[in-house]
Write a structure and sequence with these properties.
- The chain is α+β, with helices and mostly antiparallel strands.
- The chain contains seven helices and 29 strands.
- Helices cover about 20% and strands about 35% of the residues.
- A hairpin with a 5-residue loop joins strand 25 and strand 26.
- Helix 3 runs parallel beside helix 6.
Length: about 400
C-alpha cells in the first residue's frame, strides 16, 4: 500500500491547469482568474457625497449646535447623475443627494438629519469636519492598481468590482469538462431489476458531486461488458472531455474490460492507498487526458472523489495549489469512533456542528460500511481517524468539512 499523500501527489501532478479563455463578466462567476487584473479607471471616478444633505464650507457651521443653528442660503439642488456646475461660496449651501458629484468650494456634507429647510435657507444644528461624508475619487480602487491576482475565484462581489473598474471581459481558466462513465451488465439506470442487477447509483452521485463543485459534468451513460463498447466509450469520452471518471474494476485481482482497455490505451497506475474506505484507486493519462478510476462501492467512490478527483479537477480549473482540498478543522468526537488497527487512515462519515463551547463536535452519521450510502448522504464532514485503536468520545479529531 502507499500513503494518501503519495497517491494525491501523483494525481495532482498530472492535472495541469487548462489554457485560459476570455469570457464576458456575465460568464465569469465561479471561474478562476488566469491573469492579473488592473483597473482601467478610478473607482469612484469622481468625488461624490456619501449621504443626502447639504454641501457646505465647514468653517461656516463650526459653531452650529441644537438650539443655536447656523443659517445658510441654499443655492440649488444637485441630484446623482448630474454634473456639479455651481461652486459653493461663503454662507451658502447646496442641497445634494447621495452619489452626486461633490461641488467646488465646499469641503463637507451636513447630513439631512441635522438640518431644517426654511424658505430659501437651511438651518444646520451640528458642525462638520472637512471631508465629512465625501467619497474621494479612486478611494475604493485607483486607476492602474491591481484589482485581483491570478488564482482568484470570482464571486458575485468580484464581478461587481470588475464591472465598476470598467472591465467587460476577463481571462479565466475554463471549468473542467468531466465525463462520468459506468460499466457493467449488472447496472440498471431505471426500471425493474432482474436477478443479480443493481441500480446505477455511483454515476448519479458522481455527476451530482461534479455539478455541485462547479465542473461541467457530462453523463456518458452505462457501457455494457463488451471490450469494443468500453473501448469506444473510453476513447469517445477522452476525446470530448478534459477528464474522465469511471467507478469500479480497480481492486487488486479484478479483471474486467475497463482495466484491460485502459492499460492498452493509457498510462495507468493501479494503486492501493492506505485509507478506508477508497483503498483501490486507478489514475493515469489517456492521450494526455486525466482518467480517474474510482472504487465501485458507492461510499468509496464518493470519498475517493473528495480525496483525489476533486483536488485534481480543481487544479485543472485554475485553483491555486493551496486551495485544492476541502478545509480541515480541529473538532471533538461526541460518539465512539474506536476501531481495530489495520495500518490505514479511516475517513468516517460524520455530522459536524458547532456547540455552545465554540468547538466543532462530530457524531457518526450512521453505518460506516463502504456500501452504506445513506450515511454518506447524511454526513457533512469526514472525521480523519489515524491508524490505531481509534477514538473514544471526547477525543480531539481532524474534521474534513464537505459542505
Amino acid at each position: 500500500m502507499i500513503g494518501y499523500e503519495e497517491a494525491r501527489a501523483r494525481v495532482v501532478g498530472d492535472c495541469h491547469p487548462l489554457d485560459p479563455v476570455s469570457v464576458p463578466l456575465d460568464g465569469a462567476l465561479g471561474r478562476v482568474l488566469a491573469e492579473r487584473v488592473v483597473a482601467a479607471e478610478d473607482v469612484p471616478p469622481f468625488a461624490n457625497t456619501a449621504m443626502d444633505g447639504y454641501a457646505v464650507r465647514s468653517a461656516d457651521i463650526a459653531g452650529a449646535a441644537p438650539g443655536t443653528p447656523c443659517r445658510l442660503r441654499v443655492i440649488g439642488t444637485l441630484p446623482a447623475g448630474v454634473a456639479a456646475t455651481t461652486a459653493v461660496g461663503h454662507g451658502e449651501a447646496l442641497r445634494i443627494m447621495t452619489g452626486a458629484p461633490f461641488p467646488d468650494g465646499a469641503d463637507a456634507i451636513a447630513i439631512v438629519e441635522v438640518t431644517e429647510a426654511q424658505g430659501d435657507d437651511v438651518l444646520i444644528e451640528a458642525p462638520a469636519r472637512p471631508g465629512d461624508h465625501i467619497r474621494a475619487a479612486g478611494e475604493d480602487i485607483a486607476a492602474g492598481s491591481e484589482v485581483f491576482a491570478p488564482g482568484t475565484v470570482l464571486g458575485p462581489g468580484h464581478v461587481g468590482v470588475l464591472a465598476s473598474a470598467a472591465l467587460a471581459d476577463v481571462s479565466v481558466h475554463p471549468r473542467a469538462r468531466v465525463g462520468v462513465l459506468s460499466t457493467g451488465d449488472e447496472l440498471v439506470a431505471s426500471g425493474p431489476l432482474r436477478p443479480g442487477q443493481i441500480r446505477d447509483s455511483n454515476r448519479r452521485a458522481l455527476l451530482g458531486l461534479l455539478r455541485r463543485d462547479g465542473f461541467d459534468a457530462v453523463d456518458l451513460g452505462i457501457a455494457r461488458d463488451d471490450e469494443v463498447v468500453i473501448r469506444d466509450a473510453l476513447s469517445g469520452g477522452t476525446a470530448t472531455c478534459d477528464a474522465l471518471i469511471t467507478s469500479g474494476g480497480v481492486s487488486m485481482g479484478d479483471f474486467d474490460y475497463v482495466k484491460k482497455v485502459l492499460d492498452e490505451i493509457g498510462d495507468m497506475a493501479w494503486m492501493q492507498v492506505a485509507i478506508r474506505p477508497a483503498k483501490p484507486l486507478a489514475f493515469g493519462l489517456v492521450g494526455g487526458v486525466p482518467v480517474f478510476g474510482l472504487p465501485g462501492n458507492p461510499v468509496s467512490s464518493m470519498v475517493s472523489y473528495e480525496l483525489f478527483a476533486r483536488p485534481g479537477l480543481r487544479r485543472m480549473s485554475g485553483h491555486l495549489d493551496t486551495d485544492l482540498d476541502r478545509p480541515t478543522i480541529r473538532g471533538v468526537t461526541d460518539s465512539d469512533m474506536r476501531r481495530r488497527p489495520d495500518g490505514r487512515v479511516n475517513y468516517l462519515r460524520v455530522v459536524a456542528s458547532f456547540a455552545a463551547d465554540g468547538r466543532c463536535h462530530v457524531t457518526s452519521a450512521g453505518g460506516q460500511g463502504s456500501h452504506q450510502l445513506l450515511a454518506m448522504a447524511v454526513a457533512n464532514a469526514l472525521a480523519v481517524i489515524p491508524s490505531g485503536d481509534g477514538m473514544a468520545p471526547g477525543h480531539d479529531v481532524d474534521v474534513m468539512i464537505l459542505q
